[in-house]
Design a protein that fits this description.
Layout lengths: L11 H6 L12 E10 L8 E15 L6 E6 L2 E6 L3 E2 L7 H13 L1
Antiparallel strand pairs: 1-2, 1-5, 2-3, 3-4
């Protein structure tokens, strides 16, 4: 059974407990965001361009108060996402399986 963004894992232990269902390809510079506001500028007070769940490409990075902000691109959308909500494939041992589960869940 798949999972939803409401049940998105918050720790590596939760990530490791998930059952994967395939291996999507992450290209260099791509990360996963789940239910995240894409902002016009790198600040939480900046207007949202919408909420997205996707594998996105990092274009730029700038330091923030609590975490870095990443300028990302998905399809024709470009905006900023707080580093608090970015999952890097190389930092999470089962991120590829999570991304595939997420894509299966969203397609249903």
């Amino acid at each position: 059974r798949g999972w939803t963004c409401d049940a998105f894992p918050k720790s590596c232990a939760q990530v490791n407990a998930l059952d994967g269902a395939g291996m999507p390809e992450f290209k260099e510079g791509e990360v996963l965001i789940c239910g995240v506001n894409l902002r016009e500028r790198p600040t939480g007070q900046s207007p949202s361009l919408g909420t997205y769940t996707a594998i996105v490409r990092i274009l730029d990075r700038t330091e923030g108060k609590h975490a870095p902000w990443y300028q990302v691109q998905w399809a024709d959308k470009t905006g900023w996402v707080s580093g608090d909500y970015v999952l890097f494939p190389e930092h999470e041992p089962h991120l590829s399986q999570i991304a595939m589960q997420l894509s299966v869940e969203l397609d249903q």
